[in-house]
UniProtKB/TrEMBL annotation:
It is found in: Cell projection, Dendritic spine membrane; Cytoplasmic vesicle, Autophagosome membrane; Cytoplasmic vesicle, Clathrin-coated vesicle membrane; Cytoplasmic vesicle, Secretory vesicle, Synaptic vesicle membrane. This is Renin receptor. Residues 277-352 form the Renin receptor-like C-terminal transmembrane spanning segment domain. Residues 1-19 form the signal peptide. GO terms for biological process: positive regulation of Wnt signaling pathway. Multifunctional protein which functions as a renin, prorenin cellular receptor and is involved in the assembly of the lysosomal proton-transporting V-type ATPase (V-ATPase) and the acidification of the endo-lysosomal system. May mediate renin-dependent cellular responses by activating ERK1 and ERK2. By increasing the catalytic efficiency of renin in AGT/angiotensinogen conversion to angiotensin I, may also play a role in the renin-angiotensin system (RAS). Residues 20-269 form the Renin receptor N-terminal domain. It is a single-pass type I membrane protein. Its main location: membrane. The gene is atp6ap2. Interacts with renin. Accessory component of the multisubunit proton-transporting vacuolar (V)-ATPase protein pump. Interacts (via N-terminus) with ATP6AP1 (via N-terminus). Interacts with ATP6V0D1; ATP6V0D1 is a V-ATPase complex subunit and the interaction promotes V-ATPase complex assembly. Interacts with TMEM9; TMEM9 is a V-ATPase assembly regulator and the interaction induces the interaction with ATP6V0D1. Interacts with VMA21 (via N-terminus); VMA21 is a V-ATPase accessory component.
Amino acid sequence: SNAVFTSSFILIFVTGVHGDSLTVLQSPEFVSFQKGDWPVSGEKIPDLVALTMGFSVQEDLSWPGLQAGPLFQRPRANVLVVVRGVDSLALPQSVASYPLENPVPFNLDSVAETVHSLFAEDTPVVLQLAPSEERLYMLGKANAVFEDLPVTLQQIRARLSQDGSVLASLPLNSLSRNAEADLLFLSEVQVLHDITALLQRHRHLAKDHSPDLYSLELSGLEELSRLYGQDSPQYRDATAILASVLQKFGEDVYGLYGNSAVVEVVTVKTFEAPLTRKSRSILESKQISNPGSPYNLAYKYNFHYAVVFNIVLWLMIALALAVIVVGYNLWNMDPGYDSIIYRMTNQKIRMD
């Protein structure tokens, strides 16, 4: 499960301006993103999301694009949208954009686990969603808020024929309502619309004290590119529609959380390696120690290592010295003078 939503802190990031990229679409003033061309690695995006939400990470992120913010101010939610099949989107109203290098598959499971462990009593919303793969995972308040969200392709296509469908408002142009690939793309647009509508209906989610995390993975453009080609009118029309929808989606979510949200969209032409995902609860198994490694290897160094090593080392040295000193003194002790027991016994013998 790879699309993640969590309720109370929102971060919105958007990718895609010149090649694979990460574009910050919306961000509050206290989350300081610097404009520049500093590349960010795909495997570091979960750490970047965690830092923007005020969480700690295992390894320092030495990236100048994000500056440290106020200790007691955090955004209320994080929304991450991954768009596959396109390396650029026309998103002019953005905070900053950065090149994306090493576009390996990633997920926000580690961030979701942190949110749940720190705010378990507040039942934060965690939503992971990938419509094209019918993959959904919800946690906490998301079960009640998004229970009516269409998930399977059959449900979403049925939703497209109902009142309030995006088909009535979108300029389809060359896109067809009958083609499978076109309907897949339109169904993902419908999911974005329905998520915003559900959040507007449950505005109380933006006022609680637990952070919200949303993660969406959209692959409709990838299917259109495979079927029609990147130079086709269908692909160009779909790209323009998605850019417009994401721009509005970011603005709506940002406003619903009181301008305290960060919105991300990652656009990637293709991932360098396939990511095998299993539909599971993020609480059922621990996150692997090094999610960036395809071989599931542990990190060579943990930031607790130096502390634990010094505690164990000096405690062992102190105990060893104590044993040596005690043993030396016992070996050289004169029972008649150094022991009060023998001393009193000797005096009693002399008195007798």
